[in-house]
Amino acid sequence: MAYKKRKFGQATQWMYECLKNNLKGESFKIFKPMPAPIDKIQNRYRWRIILKGNMTNQVNDILNQCLQQAYAKNWKNTKITMDVNPNNMM
To answer: Cβ distance 52 to 29 under 8 Å?
Structure first.
């Protein structure tokens, strides 16, 4: 089955840039946005950005700032969630 490459949305690109720019001084690996393993549920596309590193209070504050800024942009039909130490990656 051929994989059809989809362009990710404005919110995904913005969140990736926010995380990349704000976590520069931290020892974090930030992977580029990619479709989730189940990339569409209930007619909504899902993307994920994976971060690897040690969670500190400073990193937690940076993540919260990026989330607050993203929700302040009020993108239509967009939901952003973060899962620290997920049980699975689906």
So the answer is: yes
